[in-house]
Amino acid sequence: MENKKKMSPTGYAILGIVLFCFLYYILWLIFKEKMPLHAYLSDINTNYDEYAGLVLHCIPLGIFILIFFTILKPSGAKRFLRLQASLPTSKIASLAKGLVEVEGTLIMETPLRSPVNNEECIGYYYTIEDVDKDSDGKYTYTTVHRETQCNTFQMKDATGTIGVQPEGIELVLLGETNISSTYNKRYKETLLKNGQQMLLVGYADSKNGVPFIRKDEHRKVLGITSSSGISVWNKYQPLLRSFLFTCSIILLIIIYILIQ
Length: 260
Hints:
Elements: H1 9-31, H2 38-46, H3 48-72, H4 76-86, E1 89-90, E2 98-108, E3 112-113, E4 120-121, E5 123-133, E6 139-150, E7 153-157, E8 160-164, E9 170-171, E10 178-181, E11 185-192, E12 197-207, E13 210-214, E14 223-226, H5 227-258
Parallel strand pairs: 1-2, 8-13, 9-14
Antiparallel strand pairs: 2-7, 2-12, 3-4, 5-6, 5-11, 7-8, 10-11, 12-13, 12-14
Protein name: RING-type E3 ubiquitin transferase
Organism: Chryseobacterium jejuense
Keywords: Membrane, Transmembrane, Transmembrane helix
């Protein structure tokens, strides 16, 4: 559970580099020849306009690289989507120890109460957003709190039933079940409910001879999504990937033209 969005380690690193460069430049202005890299800084200071123009031309490329690595940054949801596309769907009665994909009906054991509509559920993903309205009447939403809560549950298919230990579970590609708003806050929840047909990827394990599924600590994945939703995703995801690749090539060509 987290109440405020914290800066990532990458953000701290970038901020630290910017501050270091600024302080180093100030020291160079004071001590000049006594500082290392004096010749380079002197050249930059003398030809400031030329270097500033070069930096401005490189900004689009930097933005593209940042977006590219943000998209590629691994997350539990991305690992889930990648693994489910390659794993065969196993029958519960014949699960072997290790990473597995199972599809079945959810069976609730101990119910939870959802935070927005107070509905009975197996688990939920809950967010609180700050709502801001600009001078043009457009609304912006900033997530200030998010949490996932889930009780132990079971999955059942035609061959049997297995328990799921939900610590670290992620709800993937599931739309909001309920949304509530006030004048400056918006509250959203996505629910796992008894009887839903879902697909789950996790690690099949056993304790005292009783099998169960938990988070795969090596691959950092325990994800669940709707069976119908993942079918649509697997059908159209290759088209989306091709579209994004084409857009990337076009953007690179545009950046190349701009920096000439």
